[in-house]
Each structure stands twice: as structure tokens, then as C-alpha cells.
Amino acid sequence: MINVCDINVMRPLLAEHGFHFSKAKGQNFLIAGWVPEQIAEDSGVDSSVGVLEIGPGIGPLTQQLCLRAGKVCAVEVDTRLEPILDMTVGAFSNLEILWGDVLKQDIPKLVQEKFAGLRPMACANLPYYITSPILSALLEAECFEAVTVMVQKEVAQRIAAKPGTADYSAFTVFCQFYAEPELLFDVPAHCFMPQPKVTSAVITLRTRKELPWQIEDKDIFFRTVRASFAMRRKKLQNGLAAGFPELGKQGAGEVIAACGLSENVRGETLDIPGFVAIANEIVKRKKG
Ligand code: SAM
Asked: Is the pTM of this model over 0.90?
């Protein structure tokens, strides 16, 4: 197997194909072999798993996934990488590469078609410029057992944040609504070429088999979450009144009181059951 993380292998390989890194495509390739190995190992991928990889690049993580998985499906947008991937991972019979933008894929359909009889997981060193849309699409697809990704460390901390902390955000609630996050390990900038300006981290999101809360209306729930974080350090009442003008300030106050919360409560201190209670109360009022 070609050691694509060895810089003395990678450099001539890229040069041979006239390949130049695209910043616009978020291309920071791994040059530390322990990283893809550790990601694949910690992802829990084994022969019973079908794994979707996003952005194989020149294939360091792809190799490690192919060594473990029942099947790997890798989606790559940059077709200049085709002849290189041919050399680095072309010999794996359990690999299929799909050329295109992952955000344009029908992910549930892809999983159904490619991973019949396998446990679907997703695993990737994500292009950082579209981390949130990709993670959102993977979680909203509601078809993966686990999603293990490398992202900027600050994004990983946001995903795993606890209520009331500075990192806790609407994106935290979105991710934790669908999955339970676990921070795995940090990856310093010198493990990449070219080096990014920030430290990275690997995080795994184990998706919830059943949602442990009763949600009346998912759209209203996420509207509630967005409204609650739109005015940080302000009272929840103001955020809700702005996000749901039909409630008005008085109605927002009544919703908060009906949930047994203090009138001074701030949105960013609520946990998910707290947001669910508020959202369900808003739905009740809209119906009533
Ligand atoms: N997996 C490789 C590694 O770890 O060295 C490359 C990771 S690099 C951070 C991100 C990869 O995602 C690049 O190969 C890039 O071309 C690809 N990519 C960027 N945008 C994409 C998109 N919208 N859909 C699919 N792949 C994309």
C-alpha cells in the first residue's frame, strides 16, 4: 500500500500529476500516518459497516477505512484527483468513488443503494469551509449509526458544548438533537499539508436511535432554538418575541411561565428538553 502520508511519497505523486492544492475546496491533506489510522480505528468501522467518506483527497483515510469496512463509498468533488486515487486506493475491491459535490447527493438514497445489509456510518476529514452544511446533511439524513469527523477544534467544542457555556449555540442543539457527541482527540496543524491556521479535532456523533423527547413540530422546535440564541445574554422572552412576532412579548412571557421557567431565564441556558417544552407550548398556543 502506498504510504500517502509520507511527504517524500506525496510530493512526487502530486507533482507527477501536476496537482496543486485548492484552498477553495478546503484541501489540507494529512501527512501524519497515525491520524487516519486513529480516526478509522475510533470510528468503530468494521466488516459489518458501510462507510460514507467525504473528500478522500489522495486517500489516506480511505485506505484505513477500506482495510476495515464491508464497503466504502467515497464522494470527491475534485476530479483532478482521479488518477492519483487510482494509484493509491484503486486496488481495493470494497471501494466505490462517486465524483461530485456531497451536498448535491441524496444521502438517504445513496445509503440505501450502496450499503444494503450493512450498518451505515460516515467518516471524514471534512473540508472546513462547508463543515456545518455537510454535518447538517449527514445528521438530517437520519440513516447513520455514527458520524466520525475531523473538524476545526473550535467547531468540535461547539458541537459538544454544555448549556450555559460560551460554546453552546443553536448548532450545538441541532447536533445534540440528532446525536450524542464525544470529543476524541486533537490533531495539530503540522499534521497537514498545507498547514491550516488552526488546531483540528476528531469528534464522533452517535446518532440517537429514538429521540428521547416528544416533539410536536420539528420546524417550530428549530425556530425556537434559533430565536433563543439570536439575542445572547438577553432574556429568552425578548428572543422569543422577536422570533415569533405573532406571540408578542406578553405571549412569550406566558409561554415561559407555562413551562415553569423564571421570567428572567436566558435562552442559552436551556437544555434540549427545555427547548422542547417551550416549542411544544408555542405549538399548543398556535393550535388553541
Ligand atoms: N481525506 C483527505 C485527507 O485527509 O488528507 C483530504 C481531506 S481535505 C481536508 C477535504 C477533501 O474534501 C478534499 O479532497 C476536497 O477536494 C474535498 N471536497 C471539498 N469540497 C467537497 C464537496 N463539496 N464534496 C465532496 N468533496 C469535497
From this structure: yes
